[in-house]
Specification:
Number of strands: 0
Shape: rod-shaped
Structural class: mainly alpha
Largest sheet: none
Number of helices: 2
Helix content: over 70%
Length: 171
């Protein structure tokens, strides 16, 4: 091997290239190992965080499911409350109408009762102040008339007296 031979120099260049490639491969291997160690370290550090995130995600899903159930229950309760409110308002309207009718009835009954009481009082007053005294006066007058008739009346005729024809005429 001669240093003046071009094949020698090509062989040296190829050998140097192999050495450079080997060094580069070793450097890449070292960098890959460092990156792998860093990734492993990060993975070890991230594993508890991932476990916590997984647990947190499970808890969030559970809370979301409970939230959906609560929302459904609230919706159902809201529907029931709406229905109850509707029935209550209808009942209140009916009660108001009934109360209004009762007020009218009580007013009418009160007026009628007052009228009846007034009539009763008037009837009692008329009965005690007018009718009873008028009856007593009528009875007294009837007694006086009967007494006067007895005193003033002509003497009764004897049965054996003869009546004239005029008296016998019925006509």
């Amino acid at each position: 091997m001669n240093t003046h031979d071009p094949a020698f120099w090509i062989l040296i260049i190829v050998a140097a290239a192999f050495v450079i490639i080997a060094v580069a491969m070793v450097a890449i291997a070292v960098v890959v190992m460092r990156v792998a160690r860093t990734v492993n370290n990060l993975e070890r550090r991230a594993e508890p965080l991932l476990a916590q995130v997984a647990a947190l995600s499970a808890r969030v899903n559970q809370i979301a499911a409970e939230g959906r159930e609560v929302a459904e229950q609230v919706t159902t309760i809201s529907d029931h409350i709406s229905t109850a409110t509707l029935h209550f308002s209808e009942s209140a309207a009916l009660i108001k109408e009934e109360v209004r009718e009762l007020k009218q009835l009580v007013g009418y009954t009160s007026t009628t009762a007052k009228d009846k009481i007034a009539r009763s009082a008037t009837t009692y007053f008329i009965h005690t102040k007018l009718i009873e005294p008028a009856r007593e006066i009528a009875a007294i007058m009837a007694g006086v008339r009967r007494g006067l008739e007895v005193l003033i009346a002509p003497r009764p005729k004897q049965i054996d007296e003869t009546y004239s024809e005029e008296e016998m005429f019925i006509g």
